[in-house]
Amino acid sequence: MKRDIITSLIGIVVFTLFCGIVYPLFIAGVSQVAFPGNANGQKVYVHGKLVGSKIIGQNFADVVIDKKTGKPEMSDGNPVTAPDPRYFQTRPSGTTPADNAAASSFANYGPNSTVTLKAIQANIQAYIALDKSPSGTPYYPGGLTAANIPVDAVDTSASGIDPDISVRNADIQAYRIAAVRHLLLATVDRLISQYTASRGLGFSGEPAVNVLELNLALNRQTGGS
Amino acid sequence: MTVSGWLTIILFVTLLTAFAIPVGSYLARVYTGERTFLDPLFLVPERLAYRVLHVDPNKGQDWKQYARSLIIFSLVGWLLLYFILRTQTLWDFTGLNPMHYHSGTWNLSFNTASSFMTNTNWQYYSGETTLSYFSQMAGLTVQNFLSAGVGIVVAVALIRGIIGRSGKSLGNFWQDIVRTVLWVLTPMSIVIALVLVWQGSIQNFSHYLSVDGITGLGQQIAMGPVASQEAIKLLGTNGGGFFNTNSAHPFENPTAFTNFFEMLVVLIIPAALVFMYGRMAGNRRQGYAIYVTMMVMFLGAASVAYAAEAHGSPAQHAAGLHTQVVAGSSGGNIEGKEERFGIAGSALFDVVTTVTSCGAVNSAIESYTGIGGAVPFANLSASEVIFGGVGTGLYSILLYVLLAVFIGGLMVGRTPEYLGKKIEAREIKLVSLGILITPLTALFATALATASKAGRASIDTAIAHGPQAFSETFYAYLSQANNNGSAFAGYTGYDGTVGNLGAHGITFADLLGGFDMLFARYAPILFALAVAGSLAGKRVSPAGLGTMRTDNVTFVVLLIGVIILIGALTFFPALLLGPIVQGLTGHLY
After folding, report:
1. Does residue B421 lie within any of the structural domains?
2. What is the pTM of this model?
3. Does any domain span residue B389?
4. Is residue B579 included in any domain, yes or no?
5. Average pLDDT over residues B488-500
6. Other beta carbons less than 10 A from residue B509's beta carbon
7. A46 neighbourhood in chain B, CB within 8 Å
8. Would you call A166 an interface residue with chain B, using a CB distance cutoff of 8 Å?
9. How many domains does chain B have?
10. Nearest CB to A151: which of B80, B200, B332?
11. Euclidean distance between CA atoms B571 and B548, whole angstroms
């Protein structure tokens, strides 16, 4: 009994030093030398400014300014935002505020829940609204309905910071982007295929379009930011 | 459903089997003291460890001594982890708390310490908003290694009991745990962690990043030593993520390749242990029979989950969405799933981590369809014997094997024998208790939580009600009792309303869950070791003509029957109230 207690006390200290300190430091050391970009989060800089991480989704939206006060509109302590039509939009997010990469969380919408239904319906409305040009006509030929919107565009992601969207989701948004940015649709489509990662090993997962990379490429294309 | 989806499942089981066989041989060498290719690296540290620990590795322990060392070592580990969580700010001098998170409260820390010591890794806390890097490393990562090690050594001890030819010794606990950490967990974790960083996982100690964002909206991005913890979290079937969203987070599971790789990592040791068992028993067919049993049930679960999720959910259909595969879109129930993994990669990951005690998630299980969500329920109801946790899976299914031998023996009217050893009243009593204790704990805790006001405080009624609310409560205690740790994450023991400084617990859920985990972990371990002790001293009688064989198809069918029968009889009524109701109806609640 006493023997076991002493051994356990020494043991836990030894294992803590070995597994809890030496091992993570060793991995950090090797990673920082061999893969410094990845180990530090694949930071993306534009004109010297840190604009994001390549593999973390962000909310490509603008703060809504209250016309009367001239200040940002607030809701629950977070500024109200509206999606920026000049950019490809990421998937709906379950975090607060959207795409919060410091507090990832699931939305936890159940399969048979009216809450889920309402959330999906609201996302469909928003997706269709964004596709409307100022004149009221849809950018997407023939217009969008629930039936032809891809599911990933209106269902929340798991992490809340999914960096990718489906190819079909990107293809639909391409019409809007081309019109708003005065680009040829073919140019936008070419960028989409350039930033589409194919399935892992050829079979694992789904082809995924990295939204941040695609939007940065668009900015380079049109010379603006 | 797509061709690539089914291909993912088929290639996965093929590759798993191909890797598990050589790893199984390696493990057998490690635990029988034969020479391995890593000996030159670890023989000296091993000797040093025994000297520091003051143990004589050659001194065999009977089952009671073995159990005593194991329990005391676990208890001391629990105390240190609880202490680290409670005194998080005390370690700020290390510079490993860049976000200055407060120390944990007693209730949440109790739950978390119990969770990691029992290999459950249930997470009521949220990693990136409450824990310092120091707590994650020196606290959680350490228990990821040790709880996995404890699981493995119990399986090894039970095998020694079953095959033992002389005396009562089950081996030496200290030798087994040291060899497990040095020869198995550490080298594999290093390789896995580096593969993950190569693919995009992070490993740093920086302050969280503040980025401007393209539109100037700004974003804060959590950092940390992720890859090192991710590797052992998967390898040890622990499952406690560095981040709140676990393996769905791009820093934990950056690509479709890592998703596939991570699934292999989760199952490699549980699968290899089965082959190790066949080799140690001197009859590889015994291992194959168990492997086939597990694989049949695994493929069944994976197929059902994939088909159900590919079909889509009632809520999606009610909104008018079309959920079939179209060019450029996976379709299906992508709610709570990541685009890069798709439907098959999410459903398979879910099955891989719920048949094992891993409990890592790459998608929100709460958002699975009724039938898709019933699959993890069924996996847990089978008490994690389909591969199961590292070690726990093997020792649990061996208890089922003994029970099947007993039932088979009754049917043909002979004294039941397993590998030449008579299975008698004492063993069957211990086996029955070992098998029943986990389901009973789970059901008792669920009943208590459902019937009490304090238990219902953990349900967010704005999101979940009706069968969904029951499902998430039931899943919480079933998952904790099975030391799994995956969750219908709407159920919480964490009060997030007070902001992100310091972790605040919901006492009832924290305590009930904590005791649920502790009891359902250590009671079966004690029964398994007692069975081992009881079998160790028995004489081996040569197999005769009438001996029931335990390495053929008939036995595999019998074993599957016993597992399903016990799981179904125990849990079917409760399952009807939750996931099955949801699966059978298109009705929304």
Report:
1. yes
2. 0.95
3. yes
4. yes
5. 68
6. 27
7. 214
8. yes
9. 1
10. B332
11. 30
